[in-house]
Amino acid sequence: MKAIWNDSVIAESNDTVVVEGNHYFPADSVKTEFLRPSSTHSTCPWKGVASYHSLEVGGKVNADAAWFYPAPKDAAKEIAGRIAFWKGVQVSA
Fold it and tell me: Per-residue pLDDT tens for 80-90?
């Protein structure tokens, strides 16, 4: 699987975990040079508290386009150490 935004590959892995239709990539498969810190957080009743990264590629910023669960609840332990994408990031095989 690949995650692509602004014509750049953000992440690539054969080991994604799909939860609610979203591919969670291993953190070490994500190109950290494209990640920017974000102070945004949200809460999922069964996964826990999500944190976000913005993406910056080619001078363009996609705010809060990547999310992860630093300490997922037991029901979502399979996504620990993984990052998912949205907001126009194309995820495909």
Answer: 999 999 999 99
9 CB-near residues (< 8 Å, 6+ apart): 2, 3, 31
What's 30's DSSP letter?
B
Mean pLDDT value of segment 28-38:
98
- The CATH number linked to 50 is 2.170.150.40
- Our count of domains for the chain comes to 1
Q: What percent of the chain has pLDDT over 70?
A: 100
Domain that holds residue 87: 2-92
CB burial of residue 22 (10 Å; 0-12, 13-18, 19+): middle
Q: What is the DSSP letter of 70?
A: S
Residue 44 CA to residue 9 CA, distance in Å, equals 28
